[in-house]
Structures are given as C-alpha cells and as structure tokens.
Write a structure and sequence with these properties.
Elements lengths: L3 E5 L5 H8 L13 E3 L2 E3 L3 H4 L4 H7 L5 E7 L18 E7 L6 H14 L3 E4 L8 H9 L1
Parallel strand pairs: 1-3, 1-4, 4-5, 5-6
Antiparallel strand pairs: 2-3
Length: 142
Amino acid sequence: MKKAMFIGAIGCGKTSFIQKLNELQMTYNKTQTIEFYNNVIDTPGEYVEHRAMYSNLMTTAIEADVIVLMQSATDPRIVLPTGFSTMFTKETIGVVTKTDIATNQQIEMVTERLRDAGAEKMFEISAKTGANVQQLIDYLRN
C-alpha cells in the first residue's frame, strides 16, 4: 500500500476515512498532532488552515508516497490555494468528502477547487455511507 498523507481542513473527514481504511470503529476523534497509522499519515486541519504550519506539512510529506488533499463537499471555502501541491514532490490526489449530504453543484465546486490546488486524480466519497470508499482504498493499495 502506498503511504498516504491526508491533508484537509478541520472536520473534512480525514480521520473518519482513516478509521474506515483501517477497519476501526467510526468515532469522532479530533486530530491534535500528526498521527501515523500503518501506511497512513493523518494531519490536523489546523496545519492547512494556518499557513505558518505549512512547513510541518512539507517536512512530514517526505515520509509519504502520495499526498491526499481532502475537502468536504459542504465546505464552500477555498481551503487549499491555487498550486498548493507544488510544495510537495509527490503524487497528489483529491478527495471530495461528505458527498452523501451535498448537492451535485457543491461536489463539482469542491472538485474544481481540489484540481486548482493541484490534485491529479479525483475521488468523491462518503465515509459514513461507504460510497466510493473502496475505490479510493483500492487506489492506495496499488
């Protein structure tokens, strides 16, 4: 499995997906610091929401094979700036989360924002319902 580093705003679903990926019980767990699980790196949302923390992301990315940019389909903010992925020398993919509670227009808007940030391949998932989660897991395992 590729070692994936998950980056996204507070509450976008990074930890929920990681729990699903590792077949853990789905519980709310606010990530306070960078956490390592098997082949996964979970980063706190504050690291992307506060530019002063970007250096922590760049340093930690050295350990990853793929960067996973995540954003909730229900979050209209521009969380990841244009070209965000250029700070990494790794493959970067995008994941739109919480698609089970979003409109098609919201999903499309966030998809474009992730592409603008530099995501090369896109996934639209719901960790809650499991929609398209297996596709993302399969991608990370190959």
